[in-house]
Amino acid sequence: MQRDVGSLPLAPALRARLVAAGFQTAQEVLETGPCGLSKDSLLSPEFWLQCTTALGSFENLIVSSRNIEIGISKEEALEALQVVRQECHSDATRTAGAPGTSRKCTALELLEQEQAQGFIITFCSALDNVLGGGVQLTKITEICGAPGVGKTQLCMQLAVDVQIPECFGGLAGEAVFIDTEGSFMVDRVVDIAAACVQHCQLIAEAHQEEDHLKALETFSLESILSHIYYFRCRDYTELLAEVYLLPDFLSEHSKVRLVVIDGIAFPFRHDFEDLSLRTRLLNGLAQQLIIIANDHKAAVVLTNQMTTRIGQSQSTLVPALGESWGHAATVRLIFHWDNNQRLATLYKSPSQKESTIPYHITPHGFRDVQPPAVTQNPEGTEMNPRKRLRREEEK
Amino acid sequence: MAAKKLRRARLSQELCERLSRHQITTCQDFLCLSLLDLMKVTGQSYGNVQKLLCKVSLACAPKMQTAYEMKVRRAVNPSSAFLSTSLHGLDKVLHGGVPCGSLTEITSPPGCGKTQFCIMMSVLATLPISMGGLNGAVIYIDTESAFSAERLVEIAGNRFPAYFDSDEKLFSMTCSVYLYRELTCGSVLKRIKSLEEEIISKKVKLIIIDSVASVVRKEFDTKLQGNLTERSNFLARGASLLKYLAEEFSIPVILTNQITTRLSNGPAIQADLVSPADDLSLSEVLDSSLQSHPLVRLPKNRLESSRILLEICLAGASGGRKRESGCVTAALGNTWSHSVNTRLILQYHDLPTRQIRVAKSPVAPFSTFFYTIEKSGFVLQDGKDQTNLTWEGTSPALQNIKVRNTALKDLLPDAALPRTTDETPSNASSLQKGKCNLD
């Protein structure tokens, strides 16, 4: 209520006029009301009548008189008041501590939320273990890697895995795939999706439960492909535009649980003379993606390139886009080669330990190096659906 | 899309005028500003500015399509998805051939067959769709002056003798291959930018650039400071232009690349600004090794033969750089490896057999095939183990490439031109002329 007028989100000109007219706090503006946003008129009633006939209507006179006094029209005044009222109301709720639309909750509530929400599995159990169950929702995961190591493969695998029905341990969600590099090949997604459907069919046959069979009817190749929403962004302008429009898109398609941006580095790595602009744009993007991830309970997966850092005695490959971009992602995975073996390292995570695991890319998609040992694991119910999948994994 | 004027984004006229006073005329400028800047510049409130942002974003954002729609489109028109290479094993592994709409790179040591491959693909692209071609024209940007029209005709006549049975057919095929000789980076970029109209007017279905590396390495000496970033910028710009063309018109783009030596022992040589992960310019290593080599007096037909000399040096003969263990990999650095979507590596095996490896592909696993170069172009060896599919490979940017390992006596041929009934590819095209000269 005591908020300074200069900090209100009004049009700058309007703000300047209010300040010039002597209003200092939002409360004063609210108390005055639209009609009183001008000072007392010094003109006599006769003059007003003459001006009325001249100007054609009383309305016009009021408007112009107000324009003379403070220089804003009635509509502008009304709009300004609405904005001020909204701001004060949300300020008040924030200070009063009412939950409402604010993002405040206790750690216990967060814990329950985190335990209840699922993960997006990657079909590579070693990687899932390292990540603590899979790719987490409401967080940004970044995958960095050398060319050809499998980043796009993992993204395509995740876009299929997010759609696995809940009875098989999945999230039954949909996926948005934003492609900036042009590596998305539909034929490959068809292969991966076919393998996934086959996998679920094997489980259903083994367990013979009714909900499994019912889920399988809707979980087919066509439905998987129809729920991957693909955008091809050719430069950073299109990428920025798309991310601006993404919240509306996600509100329309509320089942989307995964947003993949394949190649966030590519559009920003050339033709940028102004590096500070690039940093600002990237930070803005990161902010928007965090908001999207939280509001829509989706996982955001980004892929990044590697660049060479020339050091004193030798050079190393480091993730591209600079040091400050490293803060944008919550979880960072680095894929790299060790002679002939592909390795994945968990480089940054708030809750899991750093470790490196090997993985393979097979015609069926992203897989473990060897089939994992079958163990009876008496942990919480959350583990069981994934255990079922692993037991039947074919190699 | 970025350069779209704001007027066309359906903003009001006065708003556009107001913005143009601040030098904001395109959507790109608009979207690059922060919200506060936008409020100041447009004079609108926060909520209004967000609505404006939405409007401008809608004008710029790409259209959504589901993966299913893409699949259906490809199924309906399969010829628009791949260009078959007419090498059966390779096509099978690549799910049809060279993919349309993305960049494919061919890398090899000199004389392995890059230009031969490009010439062969030019012939294939002009074939009618019923024969696996794309029934269109070819744009061939040649930076090394290696293209030989005679070879083009020879491959066409020998590979598809039933189709090219008359001179007219050969003639019309050669009419659809448009050759551009560009010798500098700037002219190559200018040519790529001008391609859009040509593609539409000439109904082009294949773009070949042979080779990207030669023109880039001539002009950018990575030892000089700043050249490395300029080179990466140039390459990235070229790659994004080509990708745009490839996707817009759904055509394949084939680029060729050269090799470089990657030293694993750190920058022991003078280039202290160049890291091992970037490539050295072959010329500086070449110069020093050429001084000490007895064969330096041989006349060189092309630049390539001097590179063969280099390889001899590296492969075991005495050379100044022998102390470092180096491996030969694709040139142009790490960033370029990210930009291309598919990478095929040609390398030497036991002469005359060579190997073609799929080193990077979104759809294919690592696989190798053996081939030779005949009159009809590439011929896969069926005799060898056809299921050469391996799950092992390594980073496409670091894949070790086998160079030619012949003994010195085999190199003297420039003067003698021995027993070569099947052409050794290093002089394949010039061989024709060579034969005439020496007979």
UniProtKB/TrEMBL annotation, chain B:
Regions of biased composition (Polar residues) lie at 423-432
Which interval of the chain is the signal sequence? Answer: none
UniProt source species: Dromaius novaehollandiae (Emu)
Q: What is this protein called?
A: DNA repair protein RAD51 homolog 2
Query: Does the record carry Ubl conjugation as a key word?
Result: no
Map out region (Disordered) in residue numbers.
416-439
Keyword list (alphabetical) reads: ATP-binding, DNA damage, DNA recombination, DNA repair, DNA-binding, Nucleotide-binding, Nucleus
Q: What are the top taxonomic ranks of the organism?
A: Eukaryota, Metazoa, Chordata, Craniata, Vertebrata
Q: Which family does it belong to?
A: Belongs to the RecA family. RAD51 subfamily.
| Assembly description | Part of the BCDX2 complex consisting of RAD51B, RAD51C, RAD51D and XRCC2; the complex has a ring-like structure arranged into a flat disc around a central channel. The BCDX2 subcomplex RAD51B:RAD51C interacts with RAD51. Interacts with SWSAP1; involved in homologous recombination repair. Interacts with HELQ.
Q: Name one GO molecular function term.
A: single-stranded DNA binding
The entry's localization annotation reads: Nucleus
- Source organism, top-level taxon: Eukaryota
- Is Nucleotide-binding among this UniProt entry's keywords? yes
GO CC terms in record: Rad51B-Rad51C-Rad51D-XRCC2 complex; replication fork
Q: Name one GO biological process term.
A: double-strand break repair via homologous recombination
Span of domain RecA family profile: 79-259
